[in-house]
Design goal:
Elements lengths: L9 H29 L10 H4 L6 H32 L9 E2 L8 E2 L1 H18 L2 H29 L5 H23 L7 H31 L3 H6 L7 E10 L8 H9 L2 E14 L10 E5 L7 E9 L7 H21 L8 E3 L2 E2 L2 E3 L21 E4 L8 E4 L6 H20 L1 E11 L6 H16 L4 H4 L7 E9 L1
Helix pairs in contact: 5-6, 5-7, 7-12, 10-11
Length: about 475
């Protein structure tokens, strides 16, 4: 039923389960129980009560139905595994893997290639290793009853926290169903050495991976928050300190939505130069299939206008695919131009609320609040003296910024100068700055912590998808800044 939620509606599943699945299950179990109660010993070569109770003429058709049922069950296990891994990854509890969304309407229809291959290898290993259907049945039985027991416990919590039912009613529910499931669970534990150990071992292994990854991820984020640099430090960087502003655009990727990340300060400290246009980019995934281009970019200013520093939050839906990096650069520059126009039309910083020092609130660049002053895809426009055209050589797309007459000539000149700086920096190209972290435990940490961070987490980090692959950053424009996280 869990897997079918990604393909059918609630009503269809309720009707099918109530009138077809449940009566069929009850009849099958009652018939098998009646046969076993009368035939205490099975003398057939099958040694399986279910097939022994089936008449000889129907045995092969029933076997075909059982094979089809196993296919459906395996599909449910695969879909459930994909969903759990995806949710764990979203919560920061599992290493980054490739998630392919196969539906534009239903969020739950996904495919994870790495997990699919791992499931295939585990199935072959279990079949070759056990070579006994009874051991496989013991492992499956313990897994099923454990899932039922855990589901009952979680449902009792849902009744209190989500459904706002009485705690007494939740306790009655837990004791009634939980006591029955505990009996089956204890009976399955008797077969622990006969194959039932496998699901417990796999669960323990996955729990260790999730705990290690979540623990190190939280510690890394806390390290970034604790070591982030204030905006005053960034604004104080100038020629007096030997800092050089080189031509071009620097896109600094970070998970922080405020402040300057530590990897950028580490970069400037060791190489006292950064680009003329500085953009702190934070990429976020939202639980909708598509984000319209007009609502994708949240842009704000970091520091005064003459510093040419911005912050941009890029939002992608789970079906959005960023294929062309040149298109991303053009859209980002166009969004920055939209923000400059909007800020000028609303009277500068007076329209925004200060968040942190010189950092201001973010604006949806490209929304209906703007009169579109840029046209894409080589739109023919009459030549004007007050038009600035952005046409990267590596792409056929063009973006034009039209400077209209304004009552405040100083404001128009400032806007023109800032747009000209964007144009000049775009012609020099974009550099993608990513942090390349190395994590190690603090001196004097326990052996368990050193094993978890120095060995387990670093092994998982090296063998999972890197941020440059997930963000589709071109290697020729990538600049990685090494950082050592001491947790």
């Amino acid at each position: 039923m869990f897997a079918d939620l990604g393909h059918f509606s609630y009503t269809a599943i309720q009707v099918a389960f109530t009138f077809i699945v449940y009566p069929s299950l009850i009849l099958a179990y009652m018939g098998q129980a009646a046969y076993l109660s009368k035939h205490h010993r099975i003398y057939t070569s099958y040694q399986i009560g279910f097939y022994a109770s089936v008449p000889e003429c129907l045995r092969w058709p029933v076997l075909g139905i059982a094979i089809l049922a196993s296919v459906v069950g395996s599909q449910a296990i695969i879909s459930g595994t994909f969903s759990i891994i995806n949710q764990s990854q979203s919560l920061g509890c599992f290493p980054r893997v490739k998630v392919v969304h196969t539906s534009e309407k239903i969020h739950g229809q996904i495919y994870i290639p790495e997990v699919n291959w791992m499931l295939m290898i585990l199935c072959i290993a279990v079949a070759v290793g056990f070579r006994d259907i009874k051991h496989m049945g013991n492992a499956s039985g313990l897994a099923v009853i454990t899932v039922m027991l855990v589901t009952t416990c979680l449902t009792s919590l849902v009744m209190i926290l989500c459904w706002h039912k009485s705690p007494f009613l939740a306790l009655v529910f837990l004791l009634f169903f939980g006591s029955i499931e505990v009996l089956y669970f204890s009976a399955s534990l008797i077969k622990f050495l006969e194959g039932a150990w496998l699901p417990i071992l796999l669960a323990l292994f996955l729990m260790i991976i999730m705990f290690v990854w979540h623990y190190a991820t939280i510690k890394k984020y806390e390290f970034d928050l604790h070591n982030k640099v204030s905006l005053d430090w960034l604004l104080a960087l100038g020629e007096k300190l030997g800092i050089v502003r080189v031509p071009g655009i620097a896109l600094v990727y970070t998970d922080l939505i405020a402040g300057v990340p530590a990897n950028f300060s580490h970069f400037v400290t060791n190489l006292p130069a950064f680009h003329r246009i500085l953009v702190f980019v934070c990429v976020k995934s939202v639980p909708v299939p598509f984000v319209p281009p007009a609502e994708r970019y949240l842009v704000g200013r970091v520091g005064p206008p003459n510093h040419r520093s911005y912050r941009c939050i890029v939002r992608y839906g789970y079906r959005d695919v960023q294929e062309d990096i040149n298109a991303f650069e053009s859209e980002l520059i166009a969004s920055l131009s939209d923000f400059v126009w909007l800020e000028a039309s609303l009277g500068g910083h007076q329209s925004s609320e200060s968040v942190d020092g010189y950092e201001y609130g973010l604006t949806v660049a490209g929304s209906n609040l703007l009169t579109r002053r840029r046209l894409d895809y080589n739109t023919e426009l009459p030549s004007e003296e007050n038009a600035i055209e952005l046409a990267p050589e590596t792409t056929v797309k063009k973006v034009r910024f039209f400077l209209e007459e304004n009552n405040n000539s100083a404001l128009s000149e400032a806007v023109r100068e800032e747009l000209e700086d964007l144009l000049a920096a775009r012609e020099f190209g974009c550099t993608f700055i990513l942090g390349h972290s190395h994590v190690q435990a603090k001196p004097g940490s326990s052996i368990m912590k050193k094993l978890a961070i120095d060995v387990a987490y670093n092994f998982l980090r090296r063998n999972c998808r890197g941020p440059d692959v997930a963000l589709r950053v071109p290697p020729a424009s990538l600049l990685e800044v090494g950082m050592v996280y001491v947790l």
